[in-house]
Amino acid sequence: MVVSTLNAGGAERAVVNIANAWVARGWRLTILTTSQRGRPLAYALDPRVEHRDIGWRRDPAGDEMDRSSLDAILGALDLSDPAYDNLLADIVLLVLIRRAIQRTQPEAVIAFGDVMSVRMLAATAGLPFRRYASERCDPHRTAIGPYELLRRRFYREANGVAAQTGDAARYFESFGARCHVVPNMVLAPPGLPRPESNGHRTLVTLGRLVAFKRLDIVIRAFAHIAGAHPDWRLDVWGEGDQRARLERLIADLGAGVSIRLRGHVDDVHAVLRNAEIFAMTSSTEGFPNALCEAMACGVVPVVVDCGAGVRTIVRHGIDGLLVPGEGPALFASYLERLMDNEEERQRLAARAPEVVERFSADRVLDRWEELIGR
Question: Which residues make Cβ contacts (< 8 Å) with residue 29, sequence separation at least 6?
Answer without folding.
Answer: 1, 19, 22, 23, 48, 49, 50
